[in-house]
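Hey, sorry to bother you again with one of my protein questions. There's a protein on my desk that I can't quite get my head around. No rush at all, and the record is pasted right below.
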Amino acid sequence: LQIAQPTEVFVVKDSVRLDLETSKGLDANRVGAPNERGEILVHAKPVKLRGVRDEILSFQLVITGEPGPRVLKTREFRTQDGKVQAIDLKFYEQVGVRVSERSLNDYVRSLGPGLYPDPLIPTSTVVIKKQPQVSAIWVDIWIKPEAAAGKVTGSFSVGADENLIEVEIEVIDAKLPLVDVAGLGAVNFGSLLERRQRSKKRFLEWLQMAHAHHFNIEFLRSRPRKDANGTILWEEWADEMGPLFDGRAFTKEFGYDGPRSGTPIQRFVLPHTDWWPVDETRNNRPTSGKVWSRELKQWETLARSRGWLKRPNGTDFIIFINIFSKRFNNFMN
């Protein structure tokens, strides 16, 4: 059962962080930020977007109304002469994380209490709860590589057919490059790997979503296991992480259907650091420089045998040394 009416749908810019309880922009709490609702809404009908092939364009929806489900139904995108275009839509429910108190920080001004959007859950249905009677959806529109240049139009509905969101896209006669020119990324210090222990599938989906948006997650501490004799099991580690470096993790074999298909992850932080594969001393030296160097050579030999170092648009491998720069020479000598 889905509730058709009453439903109101608002289109919101992709750069806005919404308070999922009030549907107001959280950034309006910044000093000097505009507080008018009109500043965050997209008023154009149809929603007008512009992009190149193999790019994802995004915006948000705020849906209000009586509690209950609304099915999201998509229509094909077509050129002006009626030809179906290679455009793909995906919807994600924005799930809120409640912040009850303003954070105290000497460097960053807190945006204060609110229901902050954090997880994005793939969905084909909007569910409005009794409290609050509002839901937020993230919309991704992928212009596939085979799409023709020119204007295309399509639409999707939220519940009843009259709740129609029309979209017009100008497809520029160009393709987003495979090379990561901007170098956008974020470093993760362990929480992703902890989640990987719970669900390897969910872990991979995080990386795939980042990959689709030309964004890179550099997660630290991907340390391989050691056997009873202390030997590092590099081959086992390579079997686990290898699909990221040969590009298979971003193909249909691993459930991926999006931009830069088959292209390896752009950057990856190796497990080698100032305290692994051997402990460090108080003087920031490895307890055994010989073992440290040997294991780095072992990894390099493995990487060459797997073909990771000579791939077109291959992965940039990083060693993260977490010590002061003035001590760096002491560590490496």
Summary: The two ends are 69 Å apart (CA to CA).
